[in-house]
Amino acid sequence: MTYRIGTTGPLPATVRAVIPEENPRTRTRVVRFTPHLETDGGYAASQSVTLDLPAGKARSVVTVHKDAVLNRKGKTLVFVIAGKGVEIRPVKLGQAVGSRFEVLTGLKDADLVVVRGNERLRPGQKVSFERKL
Asked: Mind listing the pLDDT tens digit for each residue in 66-100?
């Protein structure tokens, strides 16, 4: 399990206890966990955190940022960088996780897709890009 405080994270943590009382108005319950801290971090008692809880088995998937996906004439498409230009490619999407979609078909792991300015692109158009990891 991982957790986030504000814009930090994800940071590893282990569940220590789940309190068996639920607040019926907010439908929440207290969970105590032990964070694996690398630094003090200036955390406060009873501070709110966001937990990332796994809902299934871990698996490797190809994903694409939601801003790379275009919907045109009922088709789901992305622009893929091919050489110095772009090609349009149909994709089949799976589950959404945060700001990304799982790609079931249409992309390989190493494909670079256009995220910004893709609405005005045409197949074969020349592009330049900057990698951000």
From this structure: 999 999 999 999 999 988 899 999 999 998 887 89
What is the C-alpha separation between 71 and 78, in angstroms, rounded?
9
Supply the pTM of this predicted model: 0.60
- Tokens read off for 55: 């809902």
CATH T-level topology, domain 62-120: 2.40.420
> What are the domain boundaries of the chain?
2-52, 62-120
- How far is residue 16's CA from residue 3's CA, in Å, rounded to a whole number? 14
Give ∠ CA 66-13-55 in degrees, rounded to 5: 50
CA distances from 2 to 47, 55, 61, 71, 126 (A): 16, 13, 19, 33, 41
